[in-house]
């Protein structure tokens, strides 16, 4: 039996045949031979120091997917597209809404309602949308999740032929395509959105009305409360200047009103100044300072 003081320094390689696949049975086997090495906990500590504690079976190593980072500084640089289900007239019946969205302007550049999810239909929609927006080679990046239509060879070959860069969400990550998901939420929370559509014609008519409203009238919180169409077609600057001019005029009128009130009621104005000074003094004291405002 080895001395307990030498547990850390016993001949590691003399028992290497046991240590490669060591377990409690091996420890008992050595004990039956009249040799006591150490306790189980000590054995695992020593194995860890020699980097022998690990999964002994060959494990499949999943690739590390980086988070997609897309930057758009103008329209028609980055598009996002996705497919959502619309409930049909009966249980377990669905129509499929394809939507392509410009992430800079939030403008819907293309959409389609179909009775199935298909790479062929997706290829047609992408091709027609690029033609309408006059997309040239090496201009556009198209982002999508990892659905079957998004990963289909037909779509991949089309994008390669057109010089469009494609990116995909990470596997099993639901928020890597936020612009399309947010747009679908706007659609399905819209007043008048039915629980079920009676036919594919009903779904197309509703979406036709919705996307006209969304592009031309909807004030989007993500683009300074502008409409997607105004941003997409470079009319945002004029609208923002007009909006700022109205705010400046309103501020000027409010300032003049305050000045007139102060001139007609000087005692009220002085009382307001005194109250302001007292408030400032209290603020200084609350911060632990003995200074007062002159």
Walk me through this protein's architecture.
- This protein is extended.
- α9 (236-264) packs across α10.
- It folds into three domains: 4-49, no CATH class; 78-232, Nucleotidyltransferase, domain 5; 243-286.
- With 294 residues, the chain is of the alpha/beta class.
- The chain has ten helices and five strands.
- The chain has a five-stranded mixed sheet, sandwiched between helices.
- It starts with 15 loop residues before the first helix and ends in an 8-residue tail after the last helix.
CATH superfamily descriptor of the largest domain: Ribonuclease H-like superfamily/Ribonuclease H
Q: Can you count the helices?
A: 10
Q: Classify the helix fraction into a percent range.
A: 40-55%
Globally, the shape reads extended
CATH class of the largest domain: Alpha Beta
CATH architecture of the largest domain: 2-Layer Sandwich
Order of SSEs, N→C? HHHEEEHEHEHHHHH
* Low-confidence runs of at least 5 consecutive residues: 1-10, 279-294
Percent in strands: 5-15%
Biggest sheet record: 5 strands, mixed
| Number of domains as seen in the coordinates | 3
- What would you call the structural class? alpha/beta
Biggest sheet: strand arrangement: 3-2-1-4-5
